[in-house]
Amino acid sequence: MTPAPLIEARDLHVEFAARGRRARAVDGVNLTVGEGEIVALVGESGCGKTTLARTLLGLERPASGTVLYGGAPLAYTTRALKAYRREVQLVPQDPTGSLNPRHTVYEAVAEGPRIHGLLGEAERVAAALARAGLRPPERFAGAYPHELSGGQRQRVVIAGALALDPRVLVADEPVASLDASVRGEILALLLRLRDELGLSALVVTHDLGLAWNIADRVAVMYLGRIVESGPVEQVLSAPSHPYTQALLSVLPDSPSPVVLGGEPPDPTRIPDGCRFHPRCPALAGGKAAGAGVDGACVSQSPPVLPASAESRAACHYAAALRAGN
């Protein structure tokens, strides 16, 4: 049964000025995060993942489209955003950079409750530290960031979010800066928080292996748009889009890595047709021509994917294969 949407991006577009042109960082995205659901947003650096996450947090305003929370459009007044950000909390990529080296762990975790004027500060901080796996909390409360390991610092950042009793965590590459031995512990913590507190999460990552281990659904992003999405087992065990296939092929147990040529195109100059076609192995290798869709690949943009629990891909070649079956 599909969980009710808690956060939704509806036909979202975000643009920035760049060298006299407009960079379409997010270019027509539909995405939902349901109650108690973990969604992984994956793709290469520069594909728009972080901009989309910041827009869902209310840190960027869309050029068009809507962010909805609990079915209501997000309002951009100071009061409305303050209330919203108590419910939807960011877990940043770099815990060292996000923690003030002059503040103790207690002060770092207490900052949010103080901003929001919440009562019972000491109890909130202790409970948040314990939930984040820093037990006993009094052992860590007086420590400074430089006295902690990388994994402990990430737990402090998570505790700072938990101190506000949020409903959603937006985690931007939450384990990218950690040692491999610690990554599993942080991922297990996020899963436990979902199970114990009913938290939802959007996890932004370039690592499909991480998505496989933690997510219920996955959305693959390329050059500002979702190109494949669906239940994580379906998408990652049988990917339809050549871009998803290429990302999966670099995992350690993949039999034949796919090397994509070049870098993602400039978002100020999005190619005609399918935006992936200049790097597409199916087009370059003749498979798209064999399916009779090579002309469409270079001239027609695939339809924007809807926010759906079903597995979908924005790809002419994948659509031709499905139709053939």
From TrEMBL:
Coiled coil region boundaries: none
One Pfam assignment: ABC_tran
Keyword Ribonucleoprotein assigned: no
One Gene Ontology term of the molecular function aspect: ATP binding
Domain ABC transporter: 7-248
InterPro entries: AAA+_ATPase, ABC_transp_ATP-bind, ABC_transporter-like_ATP-bd, ABC_transporter-like_CS, Oligopep_ABC_C, P-loop_NTPase
Keyword annotations: ATP-binding, Nucleotide-binding, Transport
SUPFAM superfamilies tied to this protein: P-loop containing nucleoside triphosphate hydrolases
Xref: Gene3D superfamilies: P-loop containing nucleotide triphosphate hydrolases
Organism domain of life: Bacteria
Family label: Belongs to the ABC transporter superfamily.
Protein name in UniProt: ABC transporter ATP-binding protein
